[in-house]
Write a structure and sequence with these properties.
Blueprint: E1 4-9, E2 30-33, E3 39-43, E4 46-50, H1 60-64, H2 72-75, H3 80-90, E5 94-98, H4 110-131, E6 135-140, H5 146-158, E7 161-169, H6 181-190, E8 194-200, H7 205-210, H8 216-234, H9 237-240, E9 246-249, H10 256-268, H11 278-281, E10 284-288, H12 294-301, E11 306-308, H13 323-330, H14 335-350
Parallel strand pairs: 1-5, 5-6, 6-7, 7-8, 8-9, 9-10, 10-11
Antiparallel strand pairs: 2-3, 3-4
Length: about 350
């Protein structure tokens, strides 16, 4: 069974937008450098976050003793053979690649969202082809324009995509909104999961939580991801889409016992009994981290629904490029279960052929 890095990243660069059609050039992101030398993306006339080059999380490497820094050329996919060689060093057979730019709202018009998503997906398809099966990816869809989103979904799956990236909050909509039903039906038919990655494109929430320098991304990104799991089960999405798989990505797994405990108590007041293995019964997988209390989490999640990722390319509290080695060598989990977390479970989530 291959070892699957269930949450790795590409970091968008100017090359990402070289795949736009000539008619879409007006939507191409531009780079603005401020007086301190920090570079920002400018999209639809607004600053949209930093252009990620060599970056550091303040003091976290020394404090947490975790490896997070990766070579810039490998992050930006300018050295694909080098990235694959690094995967070999880390004991990783396949990486599942997620975008970085979608963490927040990155554009304001349906037209620019269509153009940027299409260019991103073409870029990832090119990376997939060069990676010869080692670099799989989740597509980024223009969800404001459902017809175009479905077209890009089909094209992406034909070119190596093994999932659909969605944010924990999509603009003004939650993931159980019936608006997304056509997408879910087609993803189910194509046998690709909906991968809910920590992110929030709502125009208000991220800044609201970050006001006065408190709250930050925990309230805006991580808690909504846990709430999404709760909503999927409460709303019985599995009855509407019985074969559709869901991933809750990069929120750790420490919240799983709390969510399941709450569901048991809440649903019994509605005359519903929660399944003995609620994640499995609802086709939900969750990425865990090495510093989660995995024996405790597993007692609620079961051993078939956890996967693990390195967050390769980022440098934050979810990042640990040696996650696979640490889980195997330093964990307190049965080796058979570790093998499932690093391989079989991710194969089942992403529908990979091995």
């Amino acid at each position: 069974m291959p070892v699957i890095d269930a949450d790795a990243h590409v970091v968008e660069a100017e090359a990402t937008w070289e795949y736009m059609d000539p008619s879409e050039e007006k939507y191409r992101p531009q780079i603005l450098t401020d007086n301190d030398g920090v570079r920002y993306w400018v999209i639809d006339g607004k600053l949209r976050g930093r252009v990620r080059g060599e970056f550091t999380a303040r003091g976290i490497s020394a404090q947490a003793e975790r490896r997070m820094v990766t070579d810039e050329a490998k992050r930006l996919m300018q050295d694909i053979p080098g990235r694959i060689a690094h995967m070999d060093e880390l004991g990783i057979d396949v990486q599942i690649l997620y975008p970085t730019i979608i963490t927040r709202r990155f554009c304001d018009t349906p037209e620019s969202e269509v153009a940027l998503s299409r260019s991103y997906n073409r870029w990832l398809a090119d990376i997939w082809e060069q990676g010869k099966g080692r670099l799989r990816w989740t597509c980024m869809l223009p969800l404001w324009t459902m017809d175009e989103a479905l077209k890009q979904l089909h094209w992406s799956v034909e070119h190596g995509a093994c999932g659909v990236t969605m944010r924990a909050v999509e603009d003004e909509r939650l993931i159980v909104d019936p608006y997304f039903d056509p997408l879910y039906a087609e993803a189910e038919r194509l046998n690709v999961p909906i991968a809910v990655h920590i992110a929030d494109s709502n125009v208000y929430l991220p800044d609201y939580y970050a006001r006065d320098g408190v709250g930050g991304t925990f309230g805006a990104f991580r808690l909504p991801a846990a709430a999404d799991c709760h909503m999927l089960i409460t709303n019985e999405m599995v009855k509407r889409f019985p074969k559709l798989r869901w991933g809750i990505i990069e929120a750790s797994s420490q919240w799983v016992p709390y969510v399941i405990h709450d569901l048991r108590r809440r649903l019994e007041t509605r005359g519903r009994k929660l399944d003995d293995e609620p994640l499995k019964a609802n086709n939900i997988w969750v990425t865990c981290q090495n510093d989660d209390d995995l024996p405790y989490v597993l007692s609620y999640a079961g051993d078939s629904q956890l996967v693990i990722g390195t967050d390769y390319g980022h440098q934050d509290q979810s990042s640990e490029i040696e996650a696979m080695r640490i889980l195997r060598e330093e964990g307190e989990v049965d080796p058979v279960v570790i093998d499932k977390i690093m391989g079989e479970n991710a194969v089942n989530l992403y529908g990979l052929e091995v």
